[in-house]
Design a protein that fits this description.
The complex is a heterodimer. By secondary structure, chain A is of the alpha/beta class. In chain A, about 40% of the residues lie in helices and about 20% in strands. In chain A, strands 7-8-6-5-4-3-2-1-9 form a 9-stranded mixed sheet, sandwiched between helices. In chain A, strands 10-11-12 form a 3-stranded antiparallel sheet, with no helix packed on it. A 3-stranded antiparallel sheet of chain A has the order 13-15-14. In chain B, a hairpin with a 5-residue loop joins strand 2 and strand 3. Classes of the chains: A alpha/beta, B alpha+beta.
């Protein structure tokens, strides 16, 4: 059997940058989009040649707003992926969508080229909150497009919601969540807003951010207690409606968990394409250049015909210089990642996986940490697996930091 | 080589901080050709990293320079640089005692400041001839004529022909060199009398052992001679004598009366070579030691603990090594429930404390937890005994205490008249007792206050500077002990008293201090999985309380396209924070919290 590979494709464009966004994305004109997609196709060809021994299990087209691009670009990307890589028949192929940018024509095209999962960034069902966030869509637009997607034939839809927004109360958030649940999507993600430096939100709320970190009450931002209440009640609501929490912020109907995301937590190999994209291949973490210009120029050096790649790699990735960073993860780093990523999932990690990977029992390294957190009721140790308890999940950051070695 | 006494000049440079003492020293060294300007880093005399960074001289330094004067003769200058901070007043006085004259540097714009006066008085006390020099005349705000008048009026020394220089550019520095030759006296002293030499500094060198900096008053000394320290009674054979090159020791055959140089002997510890002590010949001792020796006692104490408990032996070794060079540093082992094994250390003052702390961290790579500095209290017990209290934890039960005393200083603050009110307010707030105020000239006043030492060791100097916009200067000396109403303030975290956070405080300010301390700790202590009460208590009476609420939610944001590196960095940051924590009971307290009592002032 061929070794598995996941693929992430980054589309760094959006109609307008949201006020809280610190991702690598910005508006761009048609010419730039065109050049970028052309570069992406070159990169896909290049890596396809280098990854002949691989079989692709999931594809995720993220951004930015991939759905803002003309549908034909997405089609080209997926077609090129199919030409260059061996893609499994049952592969999960997702695309991230902004409800304000979808059309029936786009949805039909996506479905036609094999996209089988939509991840729709709704963020809130309240138009006043959407406006505050700087989103380009309304709730009504979302509902229309959601129904359109069902009509067209999508059977696996995920909806993102964001909590801890300025001025948000538990009522406001639960109202959003109820409305989303009523539409019965297969998957729901619930994230807390993190106000990052360098965003308009940070400039607007920076004093409140600092105050909140110090545990003080602020006028705009919900307190930690309010956030906690929101999340507790959200969990109950989701559970009673048949959504199982399978990761810190992700909930799904049975068998609709995002396979692509689980790959990240299980440290499957994945290849990131496009600017700023991250890869993990054979325990080396790469990240592509964040510069559009360098990316476009560098991919131009890729010849059309692989036969012309004279004297280059022996199947190793990284010959053209797209990488801004490449770090070999040593054994200890692998062990740490295995734990702090694996424990994000509610199923936790299995002892068998740990022993197979690292040839020693988990207690040999984490005996003290596990015993301590088990004592505090944050970790559950069972015969075959180790996982966070519900309380442990709530403070996962705090717990997971202890799995880093000195 | 015999040196003619009349061709030697031993002098120091005295100045208020920032008036250009070190710059002038640099320029003199440069102009006498000892170093070319290319070789020379700015301020060669301050050769400790820390000194250079802070622009202050901590250890005494000396350098020998050869100057060819206009009379055609070659003169030997021994320039002795003195420490410039109130913590080191005693060292300053011993350095001055090694000189015959002093060059007084006064800033042409700022004129005379408090420390200028204090240093001049010290110099005159040691019968030094003082020649004034007016520096920084290249500044636009320079007003040399006014400064000349000031020097004559305030200090009472003739200043009409004081060189007006710019040490920075080298302008007229030549005149200073000439005046050193013509106006400062040559040393005197009988070469054939029994040896009598003043120790003005000593340091420990890994290769040479203890190196004693001294001024030969009478007699002579050479290798092989048995010598004796008259105060410590240590006896040793001289291994080497020599003089000071720039940044190096140059051995010579003999040091004789009038000369300044160094002696190395079979001594292992600077404790044997106390600053101010007299060296004499063990075989033919002189009858009387030189006057002025005193044993300096630490004024400020604090606990120093290794952040990593396993580094305790390393900290001990490092302190021992530092003590080799710094006889004023004292330490003894102590144990804290909160901090484990560490040392209670005594310092001359807060600057001295900071210097030692920084050297331990920088030169010995130690991560330290420092407890709040305190002074030495005298506790008079009901049984009639008196104990010197350096660690608040050792305070006897209140029922055993008759009364307590705390140390006071006599402080002199020089300030321009517009800030007199603000500075007096500050002194009142700090429990100062007004002594006097006089106007030295129309715009400047000298305010005298008696202040509890405890009130000035933390942040008095900063407060003074901020309230006078930098125009006030401050000097103090120990006055003695006064009876005072003092209480021990305990801090309880999660109901457990944390010994390392206890401190002694004036009774009437205890509530205020306790409240601020709890507020500060609330900010410093991160949330835990449970609620943490923070209380301040006197005895069993709780006087202030704050609560750190329980942490309920702590989750990372969305994972962006498999960017694990970013996630890892966040976790690493969190973990890094943990490393700097101390476990007390089941609460983790950041190390900074133990110093937080220092930063309680709002303005």
């Amino acid at each position: 059997m061929k070794k598995e590979l996941e693929i992430y494709v980054h589309i760094p464009f959006c109609m307008r940058k949201c006020s809280y966004c610190d991702f690598l994305s910005a508006p761009a004109d048609e010419t730039t989009q065109n050049h970028y997609v052309a570069a992406l196709l070159r990169e896909i060809r290049y890596y396809g040649e280098l990854c002949r021994d691989r079989e692709v299990s999931t594809i995720y087209i993220g951004g930015g707003t991939p759905s803002w691009l003309q549908a034909v670009y997405i089609e080209l990307i997926i077609k090129q992926l199919r030409v260059s890589f061996a893609i499994r028949k049952d592969a999960e192929i997702s695309i991230e969508c902004n409800p304000g940018t979808l059309t029936k024509e786009k949805l039909v095209t996506y479905l036609g080229c094999g996209v089988n999962r939509l991840s729709i960034g709704l963020q809130s069902a309240l138009n006043e909150e959407l406006k505050l966030l700087g989103r380009v869509h309304t709730y009504e637009q979302f509902v229309r497009n959601y129904e359109l997607a069902r009509e067209v034939g999508f059977r696996n839809i995920s909806v993102d919601l964001m909590s801890a927004l300025p001025y948000q109360t538990p009522q406001k958030f639960l109202n959003s969540l109820r409305q989303v649940i009523a539409l019965r999507p297969e998957h729901i993600s619930v994230y807390s807003l993190i106000i990052e430096k360098g965003t308009p939100f940070y400039d607007k709320y920076k004093f409140d951010v600092v105050k909140k970190e110090a545990g003080m009450a602020t006028e705009s931002l919900p307190s930690e207690d309010v956030e906690y209440e929101i999340f507790q009640r959200s969990k109950e609501l989701l559970k009673s409606n048949g959504y199982r929490r399978y990761e810190v912020s992700n909930f799904a109907k049975p068998s609709y968990e995002s396979r692509h995301n689980i790959g990240y937590w299980k440290r499957s190999d994945y290849l990131g394409l496009g600017i700023g994209a991250a890869s993990l291949i054979d325990n080396v973490r790469y990240s592509n250049t964040k510069s559009l210009d360098i990316y476009i120029e560098e991919t131009k050096r890729i010849r059309r015909d692989p036969a012309e790649w004279e004297g280059t790699d022996n199947g190793r990735i990284g010959r053209i210089n797209l990488h801004e960073e490449a770090d070999l993860i040593e054994r200890n780093g692998q062990i740490e990642e295995f734990m702090f990523l694996g424990l994000r999932m509610t199923d936790g990690i299995t002892r068998k996986d740990f022993e197979e990977n690292f040839h020693m029992p988990i207690e040999a390294i984490y005996g003290d940490v596990l015993a301590r957190f088990a004592g505090e009721g944050l970790i559950e140790r069972k015969e075959g697996f180790v996982r966070l308890t519900e309380q442990g999940m709530d403070v996962s950051n705090y717990v997971l930091a202890h799995f880093l070695m000195d | 080589m015999a040196v003619d006494q009349s061709k030697i000049r031993n002098f120091c440079i005295i100045a208020h901080i920032d008036h250009g003492k070190s710059t002038l020293a640099d320029r003199i060294i440069e102009m006498t050709g000892l170093l070319t300007s290319r070789e020379m880093q700015a301020q060669v005399l301050d050769n400790m990293d820390l000194e250079r960074e802070r622009g202050i001289t901590i250890k005494s330094q000396a350098v020998r320079i050869v100057y060819k004067a206009k009379d055609g003769e070659e003169y030997i200058f021994n320039l002795i640089d003195t420490p410039g901070h109130v913590d080191f007043t005693y060292e300053v006085s011993r350095s001055l005692a090694a000189c015959d004259g002093a060059v007084l540097v006064v800033d042409a714009a700022q004129g005379i400041e408090a420390q200028t006066l204090a240093n001049v008085y010290l110099a005159l006390d040691h019968d030094l001839e003082v020649i004034p020099v007016i520096n920084k005349i290249d500044l636009p705000s320079a007003d040399p004529d006014r400064v000349v008048d000031e020097i004559e009026d305030v200090i009472g020394i003739e200043a009409q022909d004081a060189p007006q220089i710019s040490a920075k550019t080298g302008l007229n520095v030549e005149d200073v060199l000439e005046q050193i030759v013509t106006k400062l006296p040559a040393p005197a002293g009988d070469k054939n009398a029994p040896l009598k030499a003043l120790i003005f500094d000593s340091l420990y060198d890994a290769y040479k052992g203890v190196i004693v900096f001294c001024r030969i008053r009478e007699g002579s000394v050479k290798a092989g001679m048995p010598i004796k320290m008259m105060a410590t009674n240590a006896v040793a054979d001289v291994v080497e004598v020599g003089y000071f090159g720039a940044g190096q020791f140059i051995p010579c055959e003999e040091l004789s009366a009038g000369m300044v140089g160094y002696i190395t002997a079979s001594l292992k510890n600077v404790k044997d070579t106390r600053v101010g002590d007299t060296i004499t010949s063990a075989a033919h001792p002189c009858d009387m030691p030189l006057p002025g020796y005193k044993k300096v006692n630490p004024m400020v104490y604090c606990g120093l603990y290794p952040a990593d408990g396993a580094k305790y032996p390393d900290l001990r070794d490092a302190l021992e090594k530092l003590q080799l060079n710094d006889a004023a540093l004292q330490f003894e082992p102590e144990t804290s429930i909160a901090l484990g094994f560490g040392f209670r250390c005594g310092f001359l003052g807060l600057l001295h404390l900071e210097v030692v702390q920084e050297r331990l961290e920088r030169e010995y790579n130690l991560d330290l937890v420092t407890t709040a500095p305190g002074v030495v209290y005298k506790v008079h017990k009901t049984d009639g005994t008196v104990i010197d209290l350096t660690n608040p934890s050792n305070l006897p039960d209140p029922s055993e205490i008759e009364f307590m005393e705390e140390p006071y200083v006599s402080a002199e603050i020089m300030v321009t008249s517009e800030y007199v009110g603000a500075i007096m307010d500050l002194c009142q707030e700090r429990r100062g007792i007004y002594v006097s105020m006089e106007y030295i000239e129309q715009t400047r006043a000298l305010i005298k206050y008696d202040l509890p030492l405890n009130e000035i060791i933390y942040d008095f100097f900063d407060a003074l500077k901020s309230r006078s916009r930098g125009y006030a200067s401050f000097d103090y000396e120990m006055k003695g002990y006064e009876r005072s109403e003092l209480v021990k303030l305990d801090i309880l975290i999660n109901k457990e008293a944390v010994d390392a956070l206890s401190f002694i405080v004036f009774k009437d300010t205890a509530y205020e201090r306790g409240r601020k301390m709890c507020e500060k700790l609330k900010e410093e202590i991160p949330r835990h999985l449970f609620e943490i009460p923070i209380q301040a208590a006197i005895g069993s009476k709780v006087i202030a309380r704050e609560t750190v609420k329980a942490m309920r939610k702590d989750v990372l944001a969305k994972c962006y396209g498999g960017d694990i590196t970013r996630k890892r960095k966040l976790l690493e940051k969190q973990k890094e924070g943990k490393k700097r924590m101390r476990q007390v009971g089941n609460v983790e307290i950041p190390q900074e919290a133990f110093m937080s009592v220092l930063k309680l002032d709002d303005n």
